[in-house]
Amino acid sequence: MKFNFDFNLPFKLPLESNQKFYSNYGIVEYILNFNTYTRSIVVDDSLFQSSQECTRITVDYIIPKDNLHNIKEVDEILRTVILNTISYLNKFFDAIRASFNLEYVHNITIADLPPIIIIKYEDKDYIYVTNPQDYAYKEFVLGEEGLKKLQNKIKIYDDHHDLYLVEKFFHSAKSHFYKEQFIDVIIDLQTSFEIFIRNSHKLILLKNGKEEQELAKASSIAFRNVLEDHLGKKFLKTDLGFKSNPIIKDWYDGLYSVRNEIVHSGKIDITGEIALEAHRVYVNARNYISKALKENGYLNYMGEVDLSLFKGSTKGSIDEEALIKRLKELDMIE
């Protein structure tokens, strides 16, 4: 069975036209044929320049028919072909970048592909929609209140980098899921969770009047020890054991262990189902610990952190009169 389709890259590879490259993985063969196309860069509705030369890869994806006996629907077959090819091409890009120091060559995601790809299979053309989520996206306008909320969020991020990083990695993981970068989903979710646990420990120590020296010492405690012994047994008086608490065990099995397999064992076959489960156990574990923090008086009745406890990362505070004066000078407000 052979599938044939084009991938237009946003950069040019140093390969001659009609140069071919072959890889055989036993269950699948790849034949890449490289050519050049001219990429149009849209400036506005009427102006564009079309002078950037980029690489078009024509892919032959060849697989024995009996390897697809468990896949019933054509859509599922095509999705498997596209995602496997993206994974293979990114490995190809990793290799060419490392071998020849081509830093401008970057990995691609499904979001980098055109909205529609024509896939030839058994003398038929199939239309594959790469980003169906875009068609279901509900547009909305932030408005003045939304912009105020955004300003406040940026101020918190500027002042409290540790809190910013929890949200940064969490929402980055969700963005990776949208682009079907499932390895990155796992890495970012676990990174966010570990920072959340460290921040929770720091919050408790600050609430108990600990000084900078003790905070610095606490930051070097092993992660599992922080979660099970310090947060769980010592302060929150609850079982947060990796294996004994069912919610924490779900997180351990569905996220922590998967991250370790990626980092320590080179696991790369992460499916969307694995990533979705990792998101579920992350949210459940974080909510469970947040509830325990609230019940023990470390969060207010709204479940919010007292930010005044944390030393700000930026110097000083906003001079509101100076800010208003500057906004008037810029004609942004009356």
Helices and strands, with pairings:
Blueprint lengths: L1 E7 L10 E6 L4 E14 L5 E15 L11 H27 L15 E6 L2 E6 L2 H5 L6 H17 L1 H18 L3 H26 L4 H7 L4 H14 L9 H20 L6 H24 L24 H10 L5
Antiparallel strand pairs: 1-4, 1-5, 2-3, 3-4, 5-6
Amino- and carboxy-terminal Cα gap: 67 Å
Please summarize the sheet with the most strands: 6 strands, antiparallel
Walk across the major sheet and give the strand order.
2-3-4-1-5-6
Structural class by helix and strand composition: alpha+beta
The total of beta strands comes to: 6
Number of helices: 10
Shape: globular
Q: What's the order of the H and E elements?
A: EEEEHEEHHHHHHHHH
| Mean of all residue-level pLDDT scores | 85
Q: Calculate Rg over CA atoms.
A: 25 Å
Low-confidence stretches: none
Protein model, in words:
With 334 residues, this protein is α+β, with helices and mostly antiparallel strands. The protein has helices at 74-100, 132-136, 143-159, 161-178, 182-207, 212-218, 223-236, 246-265, 272-295, 320-329; strands spanning 2-8, 19-24, 29-42, 48-62, 116-121, 124-129. Strands 2-3-4-1-5-6 form a 6-stranded antiparallel beta sheet, with helices on one face. The longest helix is centred in the first third of the chain and has 27 residues, at 74-100. The radius of gyration is 25 Å and the shape is globular. The chain starts with a strand and ends in a 5-residue tail after the last helix.
Which terms would index this structure?
334 residues, alpha+beta, 10 helices, 6 strands
Summarize the structure.
The protein is α+β, with helices and mostly antiparallel strands.
